[in-house]
Structure formats: structure tokens, C-alpha cells
Amino acid sequence: MKNIDKVILPLTTLALLGCEQAKDQRPNIIYVYPDQFRNQAMAFWNEPDYAEHIGWKADPVKTPRLDGFADESIVFSRAMSNCPLSSPYRGIFLTGMYPERNGITLNCMAERPQSSLREDATCISDVLDAAGYSCGYIGKLHADHPTPNDPANPGHYVSDRRPEWDAYTPVERRHGFTYWYSYGTFDEHKNPHYWDTEGVRHDPKVWSVGHETDKAIEFLRNRNGERKKDAPFFLTIAYNPPHSPYESLDDCMEEDFAIYKDMDYSELYVRENADTTLTKADAARYYFANVTGVDREFGRLLDELKELGLDRNTIVIFTSDHGETMCSQGTYDPKNSIYTESFNVPFIIRYPERIRPRVDSTLFSTIDIMPTLLSLAGLNDMIPSSAEGRDLSPVILENGKECDTPDAALYIRNVNGPYNEKGLVEGFFPAARGIKTDRYTFEIAIKKDGTLSRVLIFDDINDPYQLNPLDYKKEPETFAMLLNKLDAKLEEANDIWHRENRLDNLKF
């Protein structure tokens, strides 16, 4: 951080800049979210001006472009993914609704036909399209239930793999995105495939992040009519890396792997809760290589934006759907947990001359993204009534407007419901609910018979690596306070735990 506290616009100026803009001045928006990119995997957190806002060490990664980007942006230290799993995150981001309302309660795949983005949902792209934006989507979607709708082979899935995870998204399910270069989910980083706007499949045989950046640059240059010429644009770029696999040079670029290949575990693993005896330990080298590769490609995107003179009126967001535990907490599951390595995600937003670069500790959740971005675009009057999050744009703009900031972020973990006679999953089971507050991480998990499985309480200030869970029976006041906050968040979200009075039925 390069003296960012000195880069302060007068509050009166910020207030004026935060006023609703004329339509022809609406900002462009670029939303970049690589999959499984944890907040700890950014080097700037080790710099003194950033480190003072957290209680942990950053990974030993090389992220020079993100470091520079952070110096120009507001960096949320407590951005939380309400349901830290690929598909549910996407449903929340796109719709501003929690999983039960948007339709995506579990990761989308053929065996879970009831987990899929609602066709009638109003997505952020629907709103922006209606407001005159040119909307483009590049990369991984993973928000649709796969069906036998291969454009090149009608009546068949897009591959012969079973169970099927990948999916083609037809025009009628693209929710206002008029430029399309996307796929459902597919984890061969150097052998990606995509369907374009017309439904034609492309198999470029290159590292996916570099290729998707190339397509994003084409969209920005607009030489072939990728977007409307005189309209603002909303471009979403969903890189798959650093998502698994992270096992070989088939998963990352050799130039990036070279940075980490000779590092031993003591150098790779700086978090005190990491268990390097796990067989997954070698994966860190490949994971960090993908992090560095994503950083470079993100920088290339920023360079092009500046070269084209588009940077001053473009909101750029860098975030992720969930984190990666990477041997922390002794678990092989990289995500779908309340541990900070999974739950806490990057959220960095640059809006030149409109925001003051700084670190902000507001509990900023996935559910808040849609209303906040629409408001930043001057479209607060178009935020759909279905949106369940808060408009936190006043926090970002510091424009003097009142803003109801959250005192907790809701955590949701669902697992498969029962299987029917066809071998398909029926619904979901709400296995755990929890919250993150300014100080505590709190989770209650239940068994499928509805009885208590575990209670987790971490004091994140005094125990930033979550090594010493508090005994809720020995901390009755803290437990009661957290239980009340969780109950309030469940009621606010009209969560199934609230509707079925699950907290009241548990025996603590």
C-alpha cells in the first residue's frame, strides 16, 4: 500500500460523485471471479499497511498486479461467501437471493435436477440489460442443471461422462447476457471448451485463463461487434483456476510453477493450522502457480482497459466464489466449510475518482453484491424487490448516506437430500448454519435425524487460525449472544432452519 491514506477526496466531492449519474455517464462494470481463490492468497496482505487489518499471514505468493490493484481500490478484509460452494455462490451473486429462493441449493449436476437457477429469477444482468447495458459472460457458469441439450447433438448431454456436470446454456437461460463464451463446469485447465453466442463449441487447447482474457480483450476492443458501441457494458469473467485439479503442469503454466517448485513445506505453508502430513500438501505449488497466473492475466486485462481509455469510468471487481483450505484444519475438503480459508474471500473494487483506496472491515456478503453494484451504477431504483441483501454502496462511496451495515454474515451448508428410485437427489438437507461477526465465527451442524452434530465457536481476534474452538457450555454468555444473532439472521433470510424452528428443537 503506497500511502493510500493520503489519496483522499473531500467528502463533499465524494458525495457529489456518488449522486445518481446520467444514463450516458453510467460506469462500465467488469466482474472477475476466479474459482477457489482464497483471500489469503494475495501478497499485499503481508505489507504493513494491510497487515494491521488482519491477524494472519498471507500465503507466500507472487501477485504483483493484484498488489497494485489493491493500492487503487477498496479492499474488504471480511468479504464472506454465504454458501461457499461454486453453484450456490453463483446463484446468490446473480440474483441477490439466498439459495432457497434462487433455486441453486447444491452444486449443479445431472443427479440434482432440483438445483438449478430459476428461469423466472431476475438477475443482475437482466436489470443491467434493461437499463441499456451490453452484457457479456466469459468462462465458467455452473448455474444450470445439465440436460440433454447439446447444440451439436440434440437429445444428448454435452459429454459422455457420467454423472454429467457440464452444461450448455441456451439463449433463453442467459438472463440478459447477449455476448456469450461460456460452459457449465469442466476441470481440464489446458483443454477447456466453450459455447459462443450462437451455440458453436470451441476447443482451443490452451490454458483457460489466458484464453478467456484474450476473449475479454476482444470484447473490450469491440472490433467485431462484441458489444453495443455506445452503451455501457457489464462484463463477467469467471476463470476456473486456481480451482482443482492442481497436480501437474497440465493444470498451470510452467513459468508460474517454476517460482514455487523448489520451495519446501515450511516455506509454502505459513498458516499455523496447516497439516503438511496430508497427501494434498504437494498441491500448494500448483495452486500458487495458478494464483500467480491469474494475477498476470488480470493485469493484462487492466492494461488493456487503460490502453483503450476505458479505465476511468469502469468499476472493476476482483473476487471469488469461495476459498481453499489447502491443508488447513486437517481437511481435504477445500470449500463448503465455515473455516476462514473457505468462508472468507477476496473482494476488491476499484472505481477511479469515486472511491478512496483503503481497507474496510465491513462484513460484506455475497448476498449484498447485486444491490450494491446496481446502486453504484446509479440504478438503485431498479434493484428488484426479490433482492435480499443490503445496498452497501454508501460504505464504498463514503457519500454521507445512511447505510444499515450488517452485524453478521450468514453461513449456509447444504448437502444432498434423499435419492429417489431413479437415483436422483430429491431436494437438499440443511446440514449447518452459522454466522461470522466482527469477532466470532459460529456454526451449528446437525445430523440427518435433526439432532445436534457439533457447535463451533472461534474467537477470530485472539485465535485467527481457528486452532482453539471455545466450549459453548463454558461460554454461556457468548453462546447465547451468538445464538440470538444467528436466529435473527435466519429469520431475516427466511431460512428453512427458521421456518422449521430447528434451533428451538435442538438440545444443547
Quick overview:
This protein has 508 residues and is an alpha/beta fold. It folds into two domains: 27-394, Alkaline Phosphatase, subunit A (3-Layer(aba) Sandwich), CATH 3.40.720.10; 409-505, 2-Layer Sandwich (Arylsulfatase, C-terminal domain). It is built from 16 helices and 17 strands.
Summarize the helices and strands and which ones pair or pack.
Elements: H1 11-17, E1 28-32, H2 48-51, H3 64-71, E2 74-76, E3 79-80, H4 86-95, H5 99-102, H6 124-130, E4 134-140, E5 179-183, E6 194-196, E7 201-202, H7 208-221, E8 233-238, H8 254-260, H9 265-268, H10 283-307, E9 314-319, H11 340-343, E10 344-345, E11 347-350, E12 358-360, E13 364-365, H12 369-376, H13 393-397, E14 409-416, E15 428-436, E16 440-446, E17 452-459, H14 476-493, H15 496-499, H16 502-505
Parallel strand pairs: 1-8, 1-9, 2-12, 3-13, 4-5, 4-8
Antiparallel strand pairs: 2-11, 3-10, 5-6, 6-7, 9-11, 14-15, 15-16, 16-17
Helix pairs in contact: 7-10, 8-10
